[in-house]
Amino acid sequence: MKAAYIEETGPPENIIYGDLPQPTPHGSEVLVKVAAVALNPVDTYIRNGANYWELPKPFVVGCDLAGTVEAVGPDAVRVKVGDRVWATNQGLMGRQGTFAEYCAVDECWLHPTPESVSDATAAACALVGITAHLGLFRDAKLQAGESVFVHGGTGGVGSMVVQMAKAAGARAITTGGNEEKCARCKELGADVAVNYKTQDVAEAVKAFAPAGVNVVWETLREPDFDQLVSYLAERGRLVLMAGRDARPPFPVGPFYVKGCSLHGVVMFKASPEEMRTCAQNMNRWMAEGKLQAQIGQTLPLSEAAAAHRMQEENTLGNTGTLAGKIVLQP
Ligand SMILES: NC(=O)c1ccc[n+]([C@@H]2O[C@H](COP(=O)([O-])OP(=O)(O)OC[C@H]3O[C@@H](n4cnc5c(N)ncnc54)[C@H](OP(=O)(O)O)[C@@H]3O)[C@@H](O)[C@H]2O)c1
Fold first, then answer.
1. Distance between CA 158 and CA 218 in Å, rounded?
2. Mutate to test the pocket of ligand 1, among 88, 127, 157, 326 (most ligand atoms within 8 A of CB)
3. Does the Cβ of 267 fall within 6 Å of ligand 1?
4. What residue owns the CA closest to ligand 1's atom 25?
5. Which residue(s) pair with 321 in the sheet?
6. Disulfide check for 294: which of 120, 197, 279, 324 has CB 3.0–4.6 Å away?
């Protein structure tokens, strides 16, 4: 089969698009014929040698996939041949990745793809949607009628946070790096989209929620806590999920005096059961059209190296050339 893989960690050019043996599903694994995969910033950190855990060799890059069950291992009971499925959390914690024509995935990570939902949509919502759901509902316990602020409403996670907040009956204010991105944020349901390059975000948040927002979701790798804490209402919840090396100052007094709480979210440590809870709501919202994929680029799988380069330029280089996910198709 064709796959995008690395023999050594390093720059995007280390990604080889070539032939690897098709995996055989063992135990409760399922062989998925991949129709679409999506790229995430974490894929680029791992490929670059972040060294969070030992990688299989060769290592197929990628966490997300959607496709059709081709074969099932002897102990697989949850799916059958021909089922359409999606998954995330592959290529992580030592597992093999998804950027290939076929993947063997333990069935505990597989979710059914609703009939009306495309493989590209399911793959593009996978990791970012599970992350947003865990943070908003398991951790920040967002309620209908509350309000949410998130940076980057057309970003991978930001676009999910905006849409899930709205689907849950909350109000959402977000940012975009240009007018086109702000317009897209509104299409995704944001009540307010602020151009952070030309407008004063703090003023816009104050106008949107004079007593502060209930949940602030930070997607940036260098959070400005003075700013974020000032956005929070009494009993507000601040969600963090990026910036492993960030060590910014923190305004202790303004935070605790409002009775706020801080939540760190890491998708890949959620259990399969926790992810299934997220996936059930995501599937319902995708089928109802309330959760759309924010796809910025669609490429053939053979372009995996170029896709990594583009993602890295945006995540680390802040070039702003991408609006959302890169989806690749074998
Ligand atoms: N902990 C976890 O489980 C987890 C899960 C997923 C992702 N992450 C991490 O979360 C981060 C975001 O991931 P992602 O997939 O959402 O990335 P992404 O798709 O690249 O989105 C990043 C967003 O940040 C916005 N942005 C950049 N600089 C900004 C600034 N100065 N002010 C306002 N907005 C700004 C961009 O907006 P514009 O395009 O409008 O400039 C873009 O929408 C990454 O570091 C990723 O590794 C962590």
1. 9
2. 157
3. yes
4. 152
5. none
6. 324
